[in-house]
Amino acid sequence: MIHQLVIAAITIVFGIGAAAFYFYGSNWLLDTMLPVRSGRPDAARNTRLTGLIRPWLFLGPAILALGLYLVYPVFASVWLSFHGRDGKEFVGFSNYIWLFNDAGFRESIFNNFLWLLVVPAASTFLGLVAAALTDRIKWGNFAKSLIFMPMAISFVGASVIWKFVYDYRAAGQDQIGILNAIVTYFGGTPEAWITLPFWNNFFLMVILVWIQTGFAMVILSAALRGIPEETIEAAVLDGANGLQIFFRIMVPQIWGTIAVVWTTITITVLKVFDIVLAMTNGQWNTNVLANLMFDWMFRGGGDFGRGATIAIVIMILVFPIMVWNIRNARREMEGR
Amino acid sequence: MLGLGNKRAPLAWAVHLSVLVFVVLWTLPTAGLLVTSLRDKDAISVSGWWTALTSSTQNAVMRTPDGAAEKQVGDKYVIAGNVLDGGSGTVSAFGRSSLKPGAFPAGQSADLGDGVTLTVKANGDYELAGTKPLDGGQRIFYTAKTPPHFTLDNYSKVLFSAGMLRSFVNSMTVAVPSTAIPILIAAYAAFALAWMQFPGRSLLIAAVVGLLVVPLQMSLIPLLTIYNKIGQALGVDAHTYIGIWLAHTGFGLPLAIYLLRNYMVGLPREIIESARVDGATDFQIFTRIILPLSFPALASFAIFQFLWTWNDLLVALVFLGPQDDKLVMTGRLVNLLGSHGGDWEILAASAFISIAVPLCVFFALQKYLVRGLLAGSVK
Amino acid sequence: MKISLLAGAAALALNASAGVAQDLKFKPGVGAQFHWDSYTKFAADHANLKGQTLTIFGPWRGEDQTLFESVLAYYEAATGVKVNYSSSENYEQQIVIDTQAGSPPNIAILPQPGLIQDLASKGFVQPLPADTKQWLLDNYAAGQSWVDLSTFKGKDGKAAVMAFPFKIDVKSLVWYSPGNFKDAGYKIPQTQEELLALTKQIVKDGGTPWCIGLGSGGATGWPATDWVENYLLLQQPPQVYDGWVDNSIKFNDPRVVDAIKAFGQYALNDKYVSGGRAAVATTDFRDSPKGLFTSPPKCYMHKQASFIPSFFPDGTKLGTDADFFYFPPYASKPELGKPVEGAGTLAFITKDNPAADAFMDFLKTPIASEVWMAQSSFLTPLKTVNVDAYANDTMKKEGKILLDATTFRFDGSDLMPGKIGAGAFWTGMVDYVGGKSAEDVATGIQKAWDGLK
């Protein structure tokens, strides 16, 4: 065991060290090769050259990693989406044609839109409220940790946790799901929540909102604290009340961060499949695209062509968010 | 700190109350899991976890020992014992048949016919007596009120199961570099994208935003194929730690770059300009100004990336393999569930064990989060 | 108690660090219930493999993994080969990923013939030696059924025996509490007609006859497929079953729809199932049998495969607290004999080496089965084993059902393409319990099947 610990420690140090060494070393190399000390005849040329090269030194590893781990698979997927189940024979557009005629796909895409409408909005809003509230009180950090805790739970764990919330036993028996226990306590009849068509989607969404609110809260809280105090004090002097300050003064100042949080959660939503997989596996009309894709990729031998086709659709869905984000980024740059 | 709460004292109680509601709603499900993880296996699927905190009335059934336990008292044959098996509780009723499990009040003698009587006292002592030798292994049904009972058995089952320690080390070996490397790489890249001028910058930003949404399940097979080819070319196993670090790095980078760049863009321009005027190089600006100022964002991302790699199962299984000596915590816990899965008590206990590390990380980094924020607010 | 538990755990931890190479569970040569001669002969025939390694990937985790490794220990001791066994929660996905990416184990063991067919048609499965077919016919009860099960079509379209069935579960079982049956004066039904009459009788007496739970997380619905398959076997000749499995008989064929309705007769009746039909789809299949043992009982009968006792409450003794009866045939259809539905695992070679071939030979020896039989949860149709090796009477009784079977059919949903057998069929059953008509459900599944082609 000691042996393994030592090896683990060495690999950890080695891994992080190698990454750190690259940045330090390459910069040192660049500065030595093209010194820009003033007074040297070639200073101006070197300044221009380093200015050209350095960004790519900084970006190099990132571009390499992104290229290999994400860009290449995207192209591989596009290629696969035009091929048969084992990725060998060319089938043209037949995967796409199949997809748009598939009832399972239509159901998934409808559900995905529901998720996209509800989860990012709810998580961001709740996260903002939680951040604003907890920033004002002494035990705020403690409260934050508790609200953040769901982030730390693996999806397997989360699905067990929520089993004990949504579990259903017939009326008259002891309920072991707390939701039904509350319902029956107030005289209602217990329901099998995750099987109620349409509404069960929302019960699954609650789980993701529960997890993502902590994320939104942490990021937004950092943003809120970054607001210059003078602006708030000025508003207080003007006689604005808490809500007014919050919505008129604070929220507009962190609008950029809110957008970031919103987008990030939106993307998580598009990729989420663990919750659906663990809770219902898409049954009772709760399927979403990511789970559908996982299904086609790996279940029952797998059909890489169709799986890849669904992946492409997911990426197309994100396109508007992408464009919006890029335009935002542009505007910021122009603003400077 | 902001002084807002103090100045508007009348509203303070409302704030406290709302936060309290928030906290209760958010912790209740997890609290249920905690309580569940401390309960007996069989109790979990019978009654709600909230009832574990109070005494509960339960119907149960036990079986008397076989004939060997029989004693002869005078001319009677007797099998005696305690239905609660030494546990505390109060028996209120008992019976002999599954059709009428509560036929007799505690303390009464039930005539079972054929000269056999059964008595169960409130403290659980029972006596089966007859004039002829008795059949052993008879069922006694009883209704008992038992005080709350908690056990650490579930935890010891999980903690001391084979290979758990090793998996813990494996998880650490995976998670720490998989967190540190992308942060390092992303911080440099984000800086370049935020504050350096070069052709193709906006295109790169667009690409990063676009890559945010690539579902990683899609990457698994193309990547594993590459890994295997490299492994074969070098004559080594394709499942290595370096492989999984780089994989996590690749998958985590878009979000890291995106978050960090957004944060860095918001840093005050004047500081960087004045540093440039003072003759600082980009590298110096980055290490001396940007990095310290970005600490909150770095810490936030570190938390998320660590949680993600720690809780990940899929990537670890694919790139590290399911071999026993390389299994990470999540993989080990899932294996614990047995071929058919679904022992809630094991799941509950293991979920808690796996939460422990990420929570420690959060608490540890939270301190730096605050410190980083204070440093940032000096501006 | 706790101390011994800790000590046991510590011992386990020590074992694990030593890898698979653990002590042999039963000392070779000791115990008349074991065929030790087969062990010594196997060792003598495969003495030249020392130092080789063999990787095996299988579905068994947790307790089952320990059991399987206790069998592997004999293989290692006999040959000197080092075995690396691994498994994974998502083993179906894992094996697809591993074979596709070119890093398969030497031997894979899977419970889904449908998936094996898939891998075989992509050329990832090696055919077994030609004499395996005859060996199965000679040594397995209802041998032809097993040969058919183990035959797969390769990449070139040629059919061959490619997998070896090892460790079988019997599915045609109904579990009950003998004490509760005795208290109420119920008798074990010998025919389907009697089973229905008993069900009605229990309701009349104020009880609930059945516990049915289809919940299984991502696999919710599968227990219902067992019911339907079993009914199809009881109502129709095996050819209909085979045709249904390969879709030459459509899923919405009236004969299949009738089998679905036979299941619905019980599952859709609020009075027949514990918790009513709303509880059927949401009750976890692992929690479902617990209703047999509550006081008063929530139900009297539970249909489930031979593995289910691992989910009975702690301390439940098989034979006294719980027992099973064979899911009986129809009195009106004597010509169909005693069909048995089962499931099980098949071992196949994904990367050939001499150690892998030797392992396949090892699985044929009686001792490979007997070591597992003597512990728990292992049944085999292998006629050469000594049935006295079974650890208890319940297992022996289950084993006898396998040996007596006139027809054995493998779980149909595992034979169908994964998208159907582990997808549309499950979902369809959930919808059926949710209130859709049997015809609509069957037509929906058939449509999904058509979509595959």
TrEMBL record, chain A:
Q: What SUPFAM superfamilies does the entry give?
A: MetI-like
Task: Give the transmembrane ranges.
Answer: 6-30, 51-72, 113-134, 146-165, 202-224, 245-270, 304-326
The alphabetized UniProt keywords are:
Cell membrane, Membrane, Transmembrane, Transmembrane helix, Transport
- Record-annotated ABC transmembrane type-1 domain positions: 109-325
State the compartments where it is located.
Cell membrane
Question: According to its UniProt record, what is one Pfam family this protein matches?
Answer: BPD_transp_1
What is this entry's stated membrane topology?
Answer: Multi-pass membrane protein
Q: Which organism is it from?
A: mine drainage metagenome
- Which GO BP terms apply? transmembrane transport
User: Gene3D superfamilies, alphabetically?
Assistant: MetI-like
> What would be one Gene Ontology cellular-component term for the protein?
plasma membrane
Q: Write the protein's name.
A: Lactose transport system permease protein LacF
What gene makes this protein?
lacF_14
